Amino acid sequence: MMQKVVYATKTKIKGYLYKKKIRIKINMSRIEQITELLKENPSDSFLQHALALEYVKAGNDAEAKSVFEKLLSDNPHYVGSYYHLAKLLERLGQDDEAIKVYERGMDIAKELGEQHAYGELKSAYEYLIY
């Protein structure tokens, strides 16, 4: 875990009173770390994608879905998110929506010449529909 640095003045920490500014290190979760970084650069697609994946890992599918959808709305060329969003939708039993996401992702990947991404999306898509 990353440690966030917080400054305290004239405070009692572990029974000691400090009168100068001191550094207190606080452990932060990865979700908190990424959220802090997004405050500095809210349009960073990589950070948004990473945040959505952390929500998936934490079992917060609703929040992950929301972040993926916002990311793809703001930056439809962020190809990797189509695969992860579609897989999430599959897991939620929303196969029709997942198919649409795979298809949109394949269109974008083809448009960008991203053959590897196209192949992965197509493979997952075909596995779902057949």
By CATH, the architecture of the largest domain is named Alpha Horseshoe
Low-confidence stretches: 5-25
Q: In CATH terms, what is the fold-level topology of the largest domain?
A: Serine Threonine Protein Phosphatase 5, Tetratricopeptide repeat
| Main beta-sheet strand count, sense and barrel state | 2 strands, antiparallel
Query: Approximately what portion of the residues adopt beta-strand conformation?
Result: 15-25%
Helix proportion: 55-70%
Distance between the termini: 42 Å
CATH class of the largest domain: Mainly Alpha
Number of strands: 4
Secondary structure topology:
Layout: E1 2-8, E2 11-13, E3 16-18, E4 22-28, H1 30-40, H2 45-58, H3 61-74, H4 80-91, H5 95-112, H6 115-129
Antiparallel strand pairs: 1-4, 2-3
Helix pairs in contact: 1-2, 2-3, 3-4, 4-5, 4-6, 5-6
